[in-house]
């Protein structure tokens, strides 16, 4: 299945690399071969319809630029380091958001305390002036009765 140049030539599903059937049940042997099944599954995959796969391939192509033995061996570690860096960045940003929310919470608590203080002062002022208002109303009523 390979030529002298190191290229891999895919064999037709019904026979050998030259297109002839070998007469030994080649098609059924190929479907039983796990590598052949995986290869057929990959070749039959429609990437233009699988948006998640396209996004994953785009992300992978951003940092997997050279197809060498070393990069393939280090791919898992590179992906894990990239994932760790992304998670650390997320934690850092989330920490900033948390600190801002805590600051907002403190401001809201301060405003709430001020509102409670003003409410109690208004209530105290109302209680203190209630007697004065009642007396003023009585005096006004008496004054009107004297004028009549």
Structure explained in plain terms:
- There is one protein chain.
- The chain has a domain at 45-147.
- Mean pLDDT is 80; it is low at 1-26.
- It has 148 residues and is an all-alpha fold.
- The chain has helices at residues 26-32, 34-44, 51-63, 69-147.
- The chain is built from four helices and no strands.
- The radius of gyration is 41 Å and the shape is rod-shaped.
How is this fold's topology laid out?
Elements: H1 26-32, H2 34-44, H3 51-63, H4 69-147
What value does the Rg take, in angstroms?
A: 41 Å
| Overall geometric form | rod-shaped
Q: Percent of residues in helical segments?
A: over 70%
Would you tell me the overall average pLDDT?
80
Number of strands: 0
Please mark out the parts with pLDDT under 50 across 5 or more consecutive residues, or reply none: 1-26
* Largest sheet geometry: none
- Which structural class matches the secondary elements? mainly alpha
User: Roughly what fraction of the amino acids lie in strands?
Assistant: under 5%
